[in-house]
Amino acid sequence: MVQARNADSPRRKRRSQLVRGAAIGILLGTSGLSSPLISPAIAQGYSFSQVTIEGNQNVEAASILKLAGITRGQQVTAADLNNAYQGLQNSGLFEEIEVLPQGSRLVIRVKEYPIINVIAFEGNARLKDEVISSVIQSKPRRVYSPALAEADAASIAEGYREQGRLAATVTPKIIRRDDNRVDLVFEITEGKVIEVERLSFVGNRAFSDRRLRQVLETKQAGVLRAFIKRDALRPEQIELDKQLLRDFYLSRGYVDMQVIDATAEVARERDGSFVTFTIKEGQQFRFGNITAVSEVEGVDAAEFQQALRLRSGSVYSPQDVDSNIARLESLALKNGLTFVKIEPVVTRNERDMTLDVAFTLRRGEKVFVERIDIEGNTTTLDEVVRRQFRTVEGDPFNPREVRQAAERIRALGYFADAQVNAEPGTNPNEVIVNVDVEEQPTGSLSLGASYGVSTGIGFNIGLQETNFLGRGQTVGLNLAVTSDSGDSSILFIEPAFLGRDLKLKFNAFYRETDNDNATYDTRMIGIVPALEFPVSEMGRLEVRAFARESKLFDLYMGTPDDPDTPEDEFQLGTTPIIVRDADRGPLQSFGAGLTYTYDSRITGLNPKGGTLLRFGLDYAGLGGDVDSLTANVLAMTETKVWNEDVTLRAVFEGGAIHMFNDEASRVTDRFFGSGKIRGFESSGFGPRDQASDDALGGNYFAVARLESEFPLGTPEEYGITGGLFADFGSVWSLDDVTGWDDSGGPGINTVDDGFHLRSSIGFSVFWDTPIGPLRFNFAKALAKQDYDKEQFFDLTISTKF
């Protein structure tokens, strides 16, 4: 059995002996020198007519002499001999070194470091051998270096530290083999993950610890710590957390906020850590007087004053200031004013805690963009990166535009890193913009699962490439299946059609339902090409065309009309309304539509929430079998109150379909309000043929949902919050209301399609789990009709993994 030993201790001992021996030899010169002659010998130095190299096997003698820096006949002193020893030692080639003067002959005796035979890792389970091998510099068939082995051990320990295993230890050891070879073994003790047991704050008054923890990248360890890896302590992440805290307070008007200290203490058992941030909030400031001032001759500031979108009295935010600077710069370029810069001059008013901002127009230096150089994009085409800039070669240089372009490049999601900077050009008044990117994979395969009380378990699989052929195009294929439906679609998006901010979309879909709670099935297939473009800072417009075909099939015809059939076993078939829909056969519709979307969240100016407005119109009548106009609207707003611990949401949705030429709407085109009002089953409210129990949908729907989300007092690392909600709405109006009558024959006006307000209230539990966000809804229907179908409990889960 070959025993592994640490070579460092014997080696250091032997080196110490050799150094002492060399020093004695240098001082004495030869064994015949007596004590009184020591000082003169040192003073006059040595001259060697012969230098002998001993012990070298792989390193040439000439190389050793060069490292020592000594040649034959050279006059050397004791300091020169010491330098020779140090030069040989620093080469890292020799395990033992002796520099011995012997009269007129100098003997340099070395023992070379062995050659590494194999490298092995012992004790590692969390990191595979392949991963560790990629971070070390020692390699087989190379000279063994103790210093390099120690550095490799530190690199391996750093890899474990990044996983939160601060207690990991790595010890390099060698096993001697024949022919001056060794096996290098790294003995690893991985230790446990040092989790963040507690994140706490000192000095915060405006915001609770819970709210501030949501800002940090570091997370506390929770009940699901076996699955969640973000709870490990990473010291380098503390600096990022400090900056996140500063940005959070600054965006809410706390301009004097400081992170005084951030400490991370490891428990004595090294199984947990406690991180504390000491902060000084200061006072919250609001905007005071907002003005535009011109220092450019011939430029009136009145037009720029009107372009400002800041309100006195609102909470100060640097993002608001930056947004208005960009607005004024755009106005200046529109008016033909080049080399004009907008500088905000801020004046503090301590008495009323406001900040006056004067947006000052000043002449800037005449600097042009010489060129834009892009490097690192091995897959992505240059034009994809270049179109993120609003300036081209020859345009006036705008540092703000360069910073915004850098943000847009990073937001693409194509690159692991993107650095944009400017450097002096070939002329004094020119700059070169350098873009250095690092590609990352942009394709994805997603496997998903979903669950709903009414829909059951569902599965979906999706393939998507967001940078197809490096052109920035999106190509996707998706397939979703539940217990009673199937949905497949193909998607293609060109984000810069014709080289402009014009998004080209193409979507093809196939949907089929196999309704367990209905007496018929449906099938729909269609294609939708569309163009989307901006119409304002926060508004976009989509125009589209569509071609669809819908079909009803597998209608249930009921129990055969047999006199021998017991009355309690007789069942009616599909309602005559659906039968008449099915008798129209497959219906084809061709048309066009548009959707306007206003989303204040895209600017990020309001950190407490935002507003989303969407309005759409679709006209089907450009050929085919359907002539109709369908309108839909969505309005949603969200805000945080009570020091941002409580989130309030309000959502309104509505829709209407109008048929032309006295046609009747079809069940595949009508609104059902599925999932719109909690407390009711899917298709559980609205017009219904009570005899066959078929939900019919309606030509109109309107719902309003009010909701709050708040902490429940549980540890926030569990990801559990609560909510209260109240829903109101209805689905109503049919063109055909002739269904079954009580005797099983066709009846007149037997279906109630009037407007009947439904409402419900309830309580929700939100749970953010590693497998996806879970939501438990407990609802009670208050206003309802006798034929509506209630649902007290609902659980939804949707995730991708």
From TrEMBL:
Keywords, comma-separated and alphabetical: Cell outer membrane, Membrane, Repeat, Signal, Transmembrane, Transmembrane beta strand
GO BP terms: Gram-negative-bacterium-type cell outer membrane assembly; protein insertion into membrane
Protein localization: Cell outer membrane; Membrane
Subcellular location, principal: membrane
Pfam families: Omp85, POTRA
InterPro entries, per the entry: Bac_surfAg_D15, BamA/TamA_POTRA, D15-like, OM_assembly_BamA, POTRA
Ranges of residues in domain POTRA: 46-113, 114-191, 367-440
GO cellular component: cell outer membrane
TM helices/strands, residue ranges: none
Annotated PROSITE patterns: POTRA
Role noted for this protein: Part of the outer membrane protein assembly complex, which is involved in assembly and insertion of beta-barrel proteins into the outer membrane.
Quaternary structure annotation from Swiss-Prot or TrEMBL: Part of the Bam complex.
Annotated family: Belongs to the BamA family.
Name assigned to this protein: Outer membrane protein assembly factor BamA
Lineage, highest ranks first: Bacteria, Pseudomonadati, Pseudomonadota, Alphaproteobacteria, Rhodobacterales
